[in-house]
Amino acid sequence: MDCDIIVCGAGIVGVCTALHLQQRGMAVCLVDRAEPGSGASYGNAGLIERSSVVPYAFPRQIGQLLLYASNTRPDVVYQPSALPGLAGWLWRYWQQSAPGPLQRATEAMLPLIERSVQEHDHLVNMAGAHELISSRGWIEVFRSLATFQGAADQARALRRFDVHYRLLDSAALAAVQPGLTERAVGGIHWTDPKTVRDPQALVRTYLALFERSGGRFHSGDAFSLAQRQGLWTLDTVDGPLSSRQAVITLGADAAGVYQKLGYKIPLAIKRGYHLHFHGEERTPLVHSLCDSAAGFVLAPMTGGIRLTTGIEFALDSTPQRDLQLRRTEQIARRLFALGERTAALPWMGRRPCLPDMRPVIGAAPRHEGLWFNFGHAHHGLTLGPVTGRLLAEMVTGQTPFTDPGAFRVERF
Description:
Elements: E1 5-8, H1 12-23, E2 28-32, H2 40-43, E3 47-48, H3 62-69, E4 76-78, H4 83-96, H5 99-127, E5 133-134, E6 138-142, H6 145-157, E7 165-169, H7 170-176, E8 186-190, E9 194-196, H8 199-212, E10 216-228, E11 231-236, E12 239-243, E13 245-248, H9 255-258, E14 268-277, E15 288-291, E16 296-301, E17 304-308, E18 311-313, H10 323-335, E19 347-353, E20 360-363, E21 370-374, H11 380-395
Parallel strand pairs: 1-2, 1-13, 2-10, 4-18, 6-15, 13-21
Antiparallel strand pairs: 3-9, 5-9, 6-8, 7-8, 10-11, 11-12, 14-17, 14-19, 15-16, 16-17, 20-21
Helix pairs in contact: 1-8, 1-11, 5-8, 5-11
């Protein structure tokens, strides 16, 4: 054997899983064919989202469904050619978004969300990544008083989850974030979350900690993972690796491995886009801003102001489009001065989503020594350290900090 366990996938989830396994005494090899942190871990909005205690559910009201079906919204767009293949998954997502299943998903995810900032803090302290993290929270911005008042009522209902926030009228909002136009009529400042100014740099800083502690990263093809004579093997540029155990932390690419092994897991892809803008020196973006109605986030990043979009449903083979970005950019520019684009073409990422709004974490039931940790949807950055800890506790036989039963692959 080359190590005790192979971790397949070097995004935020894979790197954090490798670190937690290593901290529990295991010799770990981390493998990815791409640069660490270069997928969805690079292109997200940089939110460590302690305040998102209720998963993103499918709309249930007829009026909302008809509005989304028109395909004119900025927050969710779809390519008609993708719908036949997604119909079954969307139906399951809609079913799981009913009040009862949504409550169960909320209860299952809450222990992970509650520890998300704490687990990041642990790794940030060990890795010396403090300069990449801000404790200012983020602000949800509203362009309608009615929407603002409704959101304020919903925020009050979340107090039982021990989330903290401030309601900001237009004057208070302008004081906290100068430069917003009069279209911003109010905001909710969620103060528990933290923000990351360069998500890929954070992944690489965690990776550097892993390597300083004796871990090895190999450039290799996780899709070559196979079980032979009781060992898990795969190909890397340094030669074949073998180990008695392996973890799939490949996010949106996980299906390329588990399907070959005979597992049927309803993983779907939600696309998302981002662009960077230069901004204007006289009115810098201080806080990450979210317009939930339009489905975008403006975040101050190392590369400028990052505009990230909501959801696009499309075939995985379909080239990226700029339709959603054009819609959201128009709205964002009416809220805040973005300046010029820093690049002509947008970046596109792929979010791995399961219809019951929770990841798969735990042992593969038909293969000894195989483990899963993927399907984090919109919260890979948020949940990477905490699900890495949960999986590592299971692998090493420790008592998990929360019941992992809700994340078992057997639920499908």
